[in-house]
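BUG-313 | component: ligand-complex export | severity: low

The export step for uric acid jobs runs without errors, but we want the raw record kept on the ticket for reference. Input record follows.
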Amino acid sequence: MALDDDVVVVNGLNFEQRHGKERVRVARVWRNQDGRQFFVEWNVGISLLSDCAAAYVSDDNSDIVATDTMKNTVYAKAKECSDQLSVEDFAILLAKHFTLSYKQVTTTIVKIAEKSWERVSVNGQPHNHGFKLGSEKHTTEVIFKKSGVLQVSSGIEGLSVLKTTQSGFERFHRDRYTALPETRERILATEMSASWRYSFDSLYSIPKRQCYFTETYLDVKKLLVDTFFGPPKEGVYSPSVQYTLYEMAKNVLSRVHVISSVRLKMPNLHFLPANISTKDNRSIVKFEHDVYVPTDEPHGSIEACLSRLSSKL
Ligand SMILES: O=c1[nH]c(=O)c2[nH]c(=O)[nH]c2[nH]1
């Protein structure tokens, strides 16, 4: 969403500013009558686009919403949420609060990352109040304008996936600097980041169902992961990270109709063949698709965004 309408002319110069609070960490527990407890941990960032130019050019702070107030609001709103809600719904609630409560605020941007605390099972039974930390984060970004225009995006950060076969890279461009051999057999590993934008454009078009965004997040995550791996027995061949990324994004758009665009970032984390030999060429370790040197740098970086023709980016 272009935020150009927040540029003003001050003393003959274009001026654009925002202020907010980053890394506000809050955790919330909800307790059910039946003894089951629910837990989330959020890292919240708030940014306000507001008419407070006076504070930049004079000592008039009267239009500044203090960033300390923003921080307190996160805890106050978390307290008010007596029913469990998705991270997206919490971001919408905060964005709505700041945009509608302050006359000088024209736009609020709320970004939240949720840690993946998952309920543990003990002896095969889900534990009432025990959680363990998974690796990936569920992220969201909500932009809410005074005009009522809303933009909701969600994402996944740090989802590490790897397959030990069904990946290759052949027939790529070669020149005098190319050393990489072609292969139809390699490890494919990435730490995926995904973000997608919902087509909802106002508060009224947001589905009211309590777990709507959480369910959609889990659907998208499953589509991405299932497409990466393919069926459990035979898998699916990946001729390049680019091809697999495109298939993943395409499947999300074709299956989840409320999503208008999806961006995927898939670093190619190389597992190099372990070939070790002595100075006189005696092999100590000969690579037979069994021993690898894991690396995380340098890594390939592959990123693309796929959106419906009708969507505004
Ligand atoms: O899937 C791949 N895509 C690339 O662009 C690339 N480049 C490279 O060296 N290896 C790979 N693998």
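Assignee comment: Attached the raw record above. The radius of gyration is 24 Å.
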